[in-house]
Amino acid sequence: MAIALDEAELAAQAGEVPVGAVIVESATGLVLARAHNRVERDNDPTAHAEVLVIRAACQIQGSPRLAECDLYVTLEPCPLCATAISFARLRRVYYGAYDPKGGGVDHGPRIYEQSTCHHKPEVYGGLSEEASALLLRGFFQARRSEAD
Question: Which is catalytic among the residues 50, 122, 130, 146?
Answer without folding.
Answer: 50
